[in-house]
């Protein structure tokens, strides 16, 4: 279950949860989700009988306090919102000109609890980028092998006494990924089971000591993409009443 599902199905009842404490007032992720879907619907353009084009690049602007809270969730919230956009477009039969990009930006002209969306279409191919998410930080995998460990020479450095200096590696050949333990002292787990060398599927969880590392493959607009059409004059939404 994703972050947005948690909010939608039980935020009121989770008064003692970390999320409830974080979002007791001000903007909430479900309101961003609704604003994005509304932005897509109001900017759908009929290109041909069988093609309705919608924006694929979004800037979500909000007050500084709201921005600080949302940024604290790390890349997981962006992933959830991207999924919302993809599913909503698919349900409506909409299409994108390229990969989906969503970014947050603080805006001092906005009051707490108000969200404003800027959107436009960007032509281009979808680039699939492998990443490792660790404790709210995202590490793109840009070479053949990425070393994970406690040592300073590791590509992904863990502040974890249960990790060896060079604990494990993730191999990426441009299409597929593998995880391999590098003879670590405490071993490596993949989705809760000990692993020495195995295929790494998207959204798999690598456990090293107390650290939880999630492997993802993110769809992004490829470099050099150019805007298609004008920048949309955004519409403002406040918190749901």
Automatic annotation (TrEMBL):
Keyword Phosphoprotein: yes
Alphabetical keyword list: Phosphoprotein
Alphabetical list of SUPFAM superfamilies matching this protein: SMAD/FHA domain
FHA domain: residues covered: 146-195
Keyword Plastid tagged: no
Gene3D superfamilies: 2.60.200.20, FhaA, phosphopeptide-binding domain (DUF3662)
Transmembrane stretches, start-end: none
Name recorded for this polypeptide: DUF3662 and FHA domain-containing protein
Lineage: Bacteria, Bacillati, Actinomycetota, Actinomycetes, Micrococcales
């Amino acid at each position: 279950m994703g972050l947005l599902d948690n909010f939608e199905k039980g935020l009121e009842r989770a008064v003692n949860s970390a999320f409830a404490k974080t979002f007791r007032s001000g903007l909430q992720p479900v309101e961003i989700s609704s604003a994005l879907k509304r932005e897509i619907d109001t900017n759908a353009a009929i290109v041909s009988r069988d093609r309705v084009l919608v924006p694929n690049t979004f800037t979500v602007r909000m007050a500084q306090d709201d921005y600080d809270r949302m940024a604290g969730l790390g890349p997981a919230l962006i992933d959830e919102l991207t999924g919302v956009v993809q599913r909503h477009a698919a349900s409506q039969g909409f299409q994108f000109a390229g990969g989906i990009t969503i970014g947050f930006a603080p805006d001092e002209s906005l009051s707490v609890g108000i969200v404003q969306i800027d959107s436009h279409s960007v032509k281009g191919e979808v680039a699939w980028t492998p990443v490792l998410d660790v404790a709210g930080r995202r590490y793109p995998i840009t070479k053949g092998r990425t070393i994970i460990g406690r040592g300073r020479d590791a590509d992904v450095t863990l502040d974890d006494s249960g990790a060896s200096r060079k604990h494990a590696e993730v191999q990426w050949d441009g299409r597929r990924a593998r995880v391999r333990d590098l003879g670590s002292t405490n071993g490596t787990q993949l989705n809760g089971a000990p692993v020495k060398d195995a295929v790494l599927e998207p959204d798999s969880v690598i456990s090293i000591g107390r650290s939880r590392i999630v492997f993802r493959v993110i769809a992004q607009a490829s470099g050099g993409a150019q805007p298609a059409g004008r920048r949309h004059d955004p519409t403002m939404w406040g918190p749901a009443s």
